[in-house]
Amino acid sequence: MYSNGGSTTSAPSVVASTAISIGVQSLCILNTVVYPIVSTVAVYIDTNVDLSDTSFTIVDKLGKEVHLSSTTPNGALIYVSNLSAGTDIFVINYGTSILRKKVVVIK
C-alpha cells in the first residue's frame, strides 16, 4: 500500500488475458419494398422471403402502436384508411432483422 497525502492506494494490478472469444450472429437480409409511400387506402409490402413468422407494427408520430397486422407469404396488404393523417412508421420484425419504413397517410 502506498500513501500519498492522506490517500491510500494499492499497488497496480496486472491483468492478463489468454483468450478472447467473439460471438457472431448470422446475418439476416430482408429485401422489402413498401409502396406507395403516400396512401389514402392501403400499403403493399413485397419481399423475397416467406413472411409467415414476421410481425408488422405501425407506430404513429407520438410513438403509439396504432395497428398490428398479420402477414402472408411474400408480402402483405395493410389498410391505412382507418389511421389518422400524418407520417407513420411501419416496423417489420423478421427473425433478427428489424426494418423501418416511413409511410404518409393522407385524407
Q: How are the secondary structure elements laid out?
A:
Elements: E1 2-4, E2 7-9, E3 32-35, E4 38-39, E5 42-47, E6 55-59, E7 65-69, E8 75-79, E9 86-94, E10 97-105
Parallel strand pairs: 4-10
Antiparallel strand pairs: 1-2, 3-5, 5-8, 6-7, 6-9, 9-10
The CATH topology assignment is Immunoglobulin-like
* Cα end-to-end separation: 74 Å
The CATH architecture can be named as Sandwich
Percentage of residues in strands = over 45%
Detail the poorly predicted runs: none
What about the largest sheet?
A: 5 strands, mixed
Number of spatially distinct domains: 1
Silhouette: globular
Strand order of the largest sheet: 4-10-9-6-7
Query: What's the CATH C level?
Result: Mainly Beta
Query: What is the multimeric organization of the chains shown?
Result: single chain
Radius of gyration: 25 Å
How would you classify the helix and strand content by structural class?
A: mainly beta
Describe this structure in words.
By secondary structure, the protein is mainly beta. The chain has a single domain (28-105), classed as Immunoglobulin-like, CATH 2.60.40.3080. It contains no helices and 10 strands. It has strands spanning 2-4, 7-9, 32-35, 38-39, 42-47, 55-59, 65-69, 75-79, 86-94, 97-105. The strands form 3 sheets. A 5-stranded mixed β-sheet has the order 4-10-9-6-7, with no helix packed on it. The chain has a 3-stranded antiparallel β-sheet with strand order 3-5-8, with no helix packed on it. Strand 9 (86-94) and strand 10 form a beta hairpin. The relative contact order is 0.23.
